[in-house]
Amino acid sequence: MGPEGGNCACSSVPARRLCWVLGGILVLLPAAALLRGQVLSIVETGVGATEESVLQAELERLEEARTALAERRESAHSYQAVFLHSGASQTVCPVLGGPGPVLRLGLQPKRSPIRPRLAIAPPRIPWESVAQPGESPAGIFGDYLSSQVIQAKCIHCHVAGGISGHTRLVFTPSDMAGHQAANIAAFQGFLDDAEGGADLILNKIQGAAGHGGGVQVVPGSADFANMERFLRALGGETTSGGLSPETLFEGVTLASPEKTLRRAALLFAGRLPSQAELGAVRSGGEARLRRSIRELMQGPGFHEFLVRAANDQLLTDRERRDVVRFGEFKFVNLTNKRYELSQEAVANGYNEAPRRSPIYRQHEYAAQYGMARAPLELIAHVVENDLPYTEILTADYIMANPMAAEAYGADTEFEDPEDPFEFKPSKIEGYYRRHGSQVVEEDPVLGRRVLNPGILATEYPHAGVLNTTVFLKRYPTTATNRNRARSRWTYYHFLGVDIEKSAARTTDPDALADSNNPTMNNPACIVCHIPMDPVAGAYQNYGAMGLYRDKYGGLDSLPTLYKRPTDGTATPYQRGDTWFRDMRQPGFNGETAPSADNSLQWLAERIAADERFARAAVRFWWPAIMGVDLVEPPAETSDSSFDALRLAAAAQNLEVEELATSFRIGFRGGAPYNARDLLAEIALSPWFRAESITADDGIRTAALRDAGVERLLTPEELARKTEAIAGYVWGRRFSLPFGTGEARSKLHDPQGFSGYQLLYGGIDSDGIVERTGDMAPLMAAVAQSHASEVSCPIVRREFYYWPEGSRLLFDGISSTDTPVSEHFRAFEVQADSSEQRQLLQWEIQVGAGPKNIRLAYTNNRVPTEGPDAEEGLDRNLYLDRLVVRSSSGEAVLEVELESAARQSCGRPRGEFYQMFSNCSLDIPLRIPTAGTYTLVVVAHQDRAAEEDARLETLIEATDGNGSGAAAIRRKLADLHRKLYGVRVALDSPDVDEAYDLFVEVWNRKRAAENLAFSGSRMQCSLLSDHLYFEGILGDALEFGSGGASRAVSNDRIRELDSRIDLRDPNYTIRTWVVTLAYLLTDYRYLYF
Amino acid sequence: MTRREFATGLLGMGAASGFKVPLASAADYRGKLFVFVQADGGWDPTSFCDPKTNVAGEPIINHWAATGEPRQAGNIRFAPFARNVPFFEKYYRRMLVVNGVDAQTNSHSAGIVHNWSGRISEGYPTTTALHAARNGAGLSMPYLSFGGFSNTAGVAVFTRLNNPSEIRNIAGPELVGGDPDRRPYFHPDDWDAITRHRDVRAARLAAAPNLLPRAARNRELYAAALASDATEGLRSFAAMIPDASDLQQVEEYGLYRSTLKRQAQLTVLAFTAGVAVSADLRLGGFDTHDDHDRDQGWLLGNLTDSVDYLWDYAEIHGVADRMVVVMGSDFGRTNKYNAEAGKDHWPIGSFIVMEKNQRWTNRVVGETDELHFAYKVNPATLQRDDVAGTRIYPKHIHKALRYYLGMADTEDSRRFPFSNTDVLPLFS
User: Fold this and answer.
1) What is the per-residue pLDDT across A544-559, written as a single tens digit (0 to 9) for each?
2) Chain B: nearest CA to A181, how far in angstroms?
3) How far does the CA of residue B403 sit from the closest CA of chain A (Å)?
4) In chain B, which residue's Cα lies nearest the Cα of A252?
């Protein structure tokens, strides 16, 4: 038992052990642990009878809790399992059954609850080495800290002459005698001098309080606990709050497996999960969820996710149209291809500006695209093929499409040599460095042509992403920058280190006046430059525009002014140098690159082997999944948010550490560095799945500010979602050479930045590089416009152009289902005269109550054009009488219809009511008792053309209890499921709200509008999506001579419409348009 | 429901989400309009508002000094470089120049954070955001951002206006192309029904219990963004946006590309429409490690031309008298050229604060020596005080601005305090 109580003595517990050293008594059991089939029990020895009985009682309560939890496993994340009370100082060890981790519980010496923290499986960070209670400071330091932390980490900076040699904590290196005693004394001195010194040290080592070295020891790890224990043993006071990274999610409920799968499907696959997929996780629970998420990671949607997410980090799309400039001739094939295409363009009349010709432009776009997408496609290739993720740096090839491969001189075989989206691993074979042996011809119109590439053919030293031309061009160098930007971003993306953050410490301008090569010598500068410059040197072979050894002669990429200063100063340059002599030599982590020829390949191998690479990978993908970066440890201890942000950062660091550890060795026995496994595990983390919270702790709430993935969809994700759900893309266009392989839309323009992509929080990979998820009114206007414009074409296509079986949203609902409809039947009136008047009869089951019978004539129009056209004919419908009889034959209603009032579309005429235009009559009645009734209408027509007059008969329940109302409610609930992924009851607030809207709009339309859908006073922008008529009309998409897509012509649409009954006699289809627009503006549609 | 009404309705929810919908109504706001012009990359004050000539025995500081001397307009000295002369001569009466501001870093990211928020470590909002939070409640786009650093720390939401020609199309979401003369996507009655029912739902979802902070904040923001007066504001702003041909065009010079005049134009229009109260404008490219004079010359010229345009355009639209314009950068540049005729990073920089008809203008505060090292100033007198004075840091500028703009004691400002920092009498 340690001095504070709550410590563990776990020596008797075998295998991997987890031990939370905390006071309090709340046991929280993550649902995930139980769902893996583990059983919680408490094992303890040596307690007296009193304590034993207490513990036994608690065990029983625990069992109840466990059972309750098992019943709630789909929604529960954590659960209060047991409170332990004891009056004695004891140690107990609840054990997770099976080979899982072990948790130790400590009892407080006083009669107050203890708050042990329960290990979850898999173990977070196994505590292989934990100091025992009561150990001396020297013992703790010697056994657990000196070599593990101080000499392994701190000493790199906190040493005399080191970067942090000026601070109050300076350590003695291990090669000096008495180093342990000296270092303990250093700690003791710090604690004596610094107010709150122990807390400050603990803050610093977890990256908070402005620690320039960032995170060195992760809270929750054995090292952290040992440091805390050591500082306490030295007399330091540490402030242990009630919250820790392990308990942060207590009181948080996780999204169900179904909801998690839906979000993951939209995120990773750009689609909704199928019913089968949902069913599988519903029945298979958590274990199946992991597999199901993993299985989503395939297909074009996943590819798009990977490429977009990678670009959000690398931002290489900025260079999409200009990777290798016109006039550059080291890529010999590209140069000559450009020349040939220019010749061809001139031959086709583009005499002055052949590069503006479609043939030139389209090839150029495709080739530049192939080169620009190389790093993103490499990452996608590695992930999609389950290659070790390290290959993104170590690949000895470059990804290229057919046009880029041709430019590179690669002999790659493609399935479709014309497909700019087919990327294959390729080798750069046709790169020639500049040399006098080259023969290049230059034409003012056609450009350059390489007649003889010269002798400097290059075996390109591929190094994955790092020396793709576009990556190098995105982060160019200058004569004084000397590849430092490349180094900075290499650290950032692939080692998870932001060097600029380490430069945030105060820089004295007097120190900056140093002219004695300050990056080598000045302590104010070397903070960054010691790690940064050797990595910059590893890029020694790449010039400003990313080309290999681009200087004349092909020996190096050193700036000319460095080699031959024009101001008369001496240069340290010597012939054969490839790097600056007044800089640190190319290398990494204190090691020098062995060869100048392949230093970047060497660096790539070193980074891939560095343990930080795995952490950097987690950091790289986290924002794409969570929609927000990882929380940085706060710098200012005086900030009111310091505790919360420190907790959040610590919890996330723990999460990152666990993920990275498993990523290195393979998740659950899988292959090391499998990125799909990593992505799935991130999506399974509570940071993704957190759904709601019941705790009201202020710090916890603030620390969970980024928890849960209920975030705004990016513009690209919103476009994808609408496409997945309704098959419609707002403003979809295509252009050659990309064809239908890549769409531009109002929410996503990969070729430029027209439309609303930036207004809706997107990035341009240049000046705007961070997505914003905070909804501003202008962004809301984009969302409203989206709903306004897409709802009508979606509804129109589903009800009019698609067969019912093909509908995506409005399956299972009829246009005759109105808020009052109970029964509907249409009759063809064939009788051509009053003498032949026809008896139309219909037997129905009707409930009791007030009803309305609507008799509607709906096809007055006679074609005047086309094969069925007939001039001078006028179809009319005549209604004689209406009778409704009960099953016993009693007439409950008998109406001579000529008694009905005159309307603009009909009038009484003799014994009949004549309808001379599309028209309807409403006849109220009350059904006394539910039962079978027969409805009889007597009618005839004035024939016109081949088609008979159509009489639609609708029985309406005016009390709103008809079958139509129920059908509409069912559809609304169904739409909530399809659009938002939520299951709502037919009488839920969600359905009530939507239904109220439906009724309001429907009533108004029924009172004011005519029967034609086109008379619905709304604009239906069918051609916004150029693929709208795909599958409805042949050749729905054409490309103009300039390469832009064209939608089908209005003539073709009119011709199509002439063959379709575009009436909406029940006013429901247009009402669904309004309702859908409303539903598409729902928060849950626009956010995950 | 109006945005104002929604904001009021959310009063009890702010604590839960951490987000606070501003309380004050901006419907009749007639106070100051705040513009922060960010010269990204590190400008060169010695060729601008803190002119330095060459010193015998020292490396050349400025090539222009070989043939020219610093000029003076009113009480303000400036370098005869780029297009400084017409700018300073036209505007010195509106200028307060603060020289010798120590950014305490030569890191771009730290310098940007420090100079735009007042604190070198991340987490504080820009003063622009605080101003929007204080005065822009209920407005459609109280805080405009054209890129660059615009951290809000949750006190406000910024709006990007990067595709102005598209705004008309969406300002009236029910209209086709924003044209009220065309048949709309929805009849006004239908659109009214959609918005009414939608607002009811948005409010209900925002009031749901047990929400995580992120969800609560998002729901509140969305509900507030939908409110009717925000929509009306957007429409009035959209109606003011000129046709594409009348928008200020993108200006290019080599690899540089400036939209600063267009940013200024849209900002003034948003101010005029009454839909915005603050804006961050941005011009990048000042990181001139090579060919410093050539590139800084164009960039500073573009910067001053654009600020000149901002004032002129504001004058035309009647909002110039309300504008406070601040210009600043990550830090300064070295007091010597490197081998590539460039200048590297230097932590000492300057700010220029501009406003019409103020007694604190036509004035320079802060001083640097002949090699551009900062002197300390007395925090009360602002005179050089090498013994008991203080260096001027960005936090001094921002704290003084908070006081001047009347938001020193707002709840947001108290959440992000500049403790142990003198309030320099910059504006008295």
Assistant:
1) 899 999 999 999 999 9
2) 35
3) 20
4) B212
